[in-house]
């Protein structure tokens, strides 16, 4: 077994032996937030999480930024408020904001038409991505709105998730693994949709992969460059980057990711066959770079909170107009936003955000806007847990951890979500 494989699979126990204290470092909020300390540390102990970071903002100002535990167990390096973590699917709100930002500039498609949320995606994607006719003619009905709302027609529970193992597109295409976004799209053009676009909601990583390529096609820049220049830089966020799969691409402030298990390497063919190489699940069990637009970003908890709090006040937002912010949080039409009898769903997926309107606002035209609802997104990968929450009372928080699943194999974000709401409610006086 390699040193790295041993590290990510078998190095947990010494950290959790006995009742050893979990180290912590703060940049803000040195006192008055004991409830957050209590809930985070208890959660880490329950699930044997090596390291975590949290940041909390109130009315757009960061009041707490704290790291807990170990960024790297072997070296004893502790998590700092500036530590970088993979944020997995919390990348999706970033992609949604980037697209809305781009649409405000009135880009045009290949036919010279101004692009809107209801523009067909096949009129935007160019080159090899749209050569020939797709196998399923319903591809021609797909719009940007469908992709943003996860109503595009792909249901990973019915078929597969082309962005994740064990499905190997590179092997099927006969290309060098792992498959990049363009190869994934080319392959999917030859597959049937699971349902008609707009007919229902089904969470789709692939839909957000397409949005990343659409941003590139319309902007003429790489997805990462456009996001950094047009979304993050105006918000004063300079440390976020697309992450790397392997350790030789790890950033200087990035944590080590821990997972109890290995997986067939996505860099090996035949994928999963006899004699294939095995890799630590966080370092080769999946390919991070192709996940850019749906799950590839690195961030500190503080930077993620700065992003999340940017939409509290539409008049002061340097990234999106009030119209775009309204669109971002609005309830979808049809089955994505309503029960079969027309009753509004208690929670729905908007553009890159889960939204839960306050119960007294259900059906209100402004139900999803800041102050009227909670907004959030969670993310997980092998070795990664992330959660970003925007609460209706002006609080925004993010928690990031370098473990994705507990010893029992269950996800960790549900457990910490309620705990952080309790912690926020317990704060007696906010600075």
CATH-assigned fold name of the domain at 90-240 and 262-297 and 330-364: Beta-lactamase
Protein structure class: alpha+beta
What is the annotated CATH architecture of the domain at 90-240 and 262-297 and 330-364? Answer: 3-Layer(aba) Sandwich
Q: Which CATH first-tier class of the domain at 90-240 and 262-297 and 330-364 would you pick?
A: Alpha Beta
Average pLDDT rating: 91
Q: Using DSSP, what is the number of strands?
A: 14
Q: Could you please describe the fold and organization of this structure?
A:
The structure is a single chain. This protein has 431 residues and is α+β, with helices and mostly antiparallel strands. It has a domain of 222 residues: Beta-lactamase. It contains 13 helices and 14 strands. Strands 1, 2, 3, 4, 10, 11, 12, 13 and 14 form a nine-stranded antiparallel beta sheet that branches. Strands 5-9-6 form a three-stranded antiparallel beta sheet. A hairpin with a 4-residue loop joins β13 and β14. α4 runs parallel beside α8 and α4 packs across α9. The N terminus is likely disordered.
């Amino acid at each position: 077994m390699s040193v790295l494989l041993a590290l990510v699979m078998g190095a947990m126990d010494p950290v959790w032996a006995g009742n050893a204290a979990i180290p912590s470092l703060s940049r803000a909020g040195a006192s008055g937030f004991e409830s957050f300390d209590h809930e985070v540390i208890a959660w880490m102990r329950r699930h044997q999480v090596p390291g975590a970071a949290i940041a909390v903002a109130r009315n757009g100002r960061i009041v707490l930024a704290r790291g807990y535990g170990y960024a790297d167990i072997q070296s004893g390096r502790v998590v700092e408020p500036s530590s970088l973590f993979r944020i997995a699917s919390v990348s999706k709100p970033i992609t949604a904001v980037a697209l809305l930002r781009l649409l405000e500039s009135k880009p045009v498609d290949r036919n010279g038409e101004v692009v809107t949320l209801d523009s067909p995606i096949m009129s935007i994607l160019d080159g090899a991505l749209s050569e020939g006719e797709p196998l399923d003619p319903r591809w021609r009905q797909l719009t940007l709105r469908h992709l943003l709302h996860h109503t595009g027609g792909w249901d990973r529970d019915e078929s597969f998730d082309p962005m994740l193992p064990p499905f190997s597109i590179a092997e099927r295409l006969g290309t060098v693994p792992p498959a990049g976004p363009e190869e994934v799209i080319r392959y999917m053009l030859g597959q049937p949709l699971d349902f008609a676009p707009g007919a229902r909601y089904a969470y789709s990583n692939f839909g957000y992969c397409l949005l990343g390529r659409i941003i590139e096609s319309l902007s003429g820049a790489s997805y990462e460059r456009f996001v950094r220049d047009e979304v993050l830089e105006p918000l004063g966020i300079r440390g976020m980057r697309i992450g790397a799969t392997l350790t030789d691409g790890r950033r200087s402030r990035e944590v080590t990711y821990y997972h109890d298990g290995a997986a067939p390497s996505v860099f090996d063919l035949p994928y999963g066959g006899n004699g294939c190489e095995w890799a630590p699940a966080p370092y080769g069990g999946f390919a991070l770079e192709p996940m850019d637009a749906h799950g590839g970003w690195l961030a500190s908890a503080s930077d993620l909170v700065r992003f999340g709090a940017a939409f509290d006040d539409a008049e002061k937002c340097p990234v999106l107009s009030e119209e775009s912010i309204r669109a971002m949080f609005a309830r979808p039409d049809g089955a994505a936003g309503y029960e079969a009898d027309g009753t509004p769903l208690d929670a729905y997926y908007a553009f890159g955000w889960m939204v839960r309107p306050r119960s007294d606002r259900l059906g209100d035209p402004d139900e999803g806007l800041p102050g009227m609802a909670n907004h959030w997104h969670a993310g997980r990968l092998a070795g990664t847990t992330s959660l970003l929450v925007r609460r209706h009372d002006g609080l925004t928080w993010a928690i990031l951890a370098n473990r994705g699943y507990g010893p029992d194999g269950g996800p960790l974000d549900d457990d910490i979500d309620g705990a952080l709401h309790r912690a926020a409610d317990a704060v007696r006086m906010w600075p």
